[in-house]
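Run log, item B.
One chain of 193 residues. Sequence copied directly from the ordering sheet:
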Amino acid sequence: MCGNNTKQRIADALRQMMKTRPFHKISVQSLMDETNMKRQSFYYHFQDTREVLEWICRKQLTEKLLSYQAPLLEQILYALKLVDQDRDFYRQVTRAVHQDAMYRFGDEILCPWLSRYFYQCDDHRLLTPNQAFVVEFVSKAAINYCIQFLRSREPLDEALARERITALLDVFRGAEFQLSGEFCRCGRITEAF
């Protein structure tokens, strides 16, 4: 059996089981019983059930979001819509996965977007330490906001989200020009335009 097909079957079974029971009550054995596969097949592909959750998130979110080319506002709204479409699942993910894993996952998506927005830099690893701090700080704040959004029972109000994200981005846009009249790009300081 093909590796990705096996992974997908395990992931599908986990998602299905999570509809009827809490994640922490799903064992590797019960998951593999659901797939009609041997337990050893699980450990060939994953270390534990949390790793399955991370794999699902990468397949459903990361691949879609990193390939979505649009202005930052639209990227953020697209991310919120994707998460909102499968909100019950992602709500359980926020409860099941350690917060550090959430940050790592979110940073993979947000750091490149924010580096491009703030510093016109496609590779956030090229940022100065201060620039990296700004990008990571904003990324962590956005991840926390998304977690709170998922845990709330409020439906996504796209118009309100657009308005608030625009207001936030306007603050950042204004702040970048107040930084001693200079504008930083990928570790270099240039005149503000």
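Observations after the first pass:
- The chain is about 70% helix and 5% strand.
- Strands lie at 182-185, 188-191.
Flagged for discussion on Thursday.
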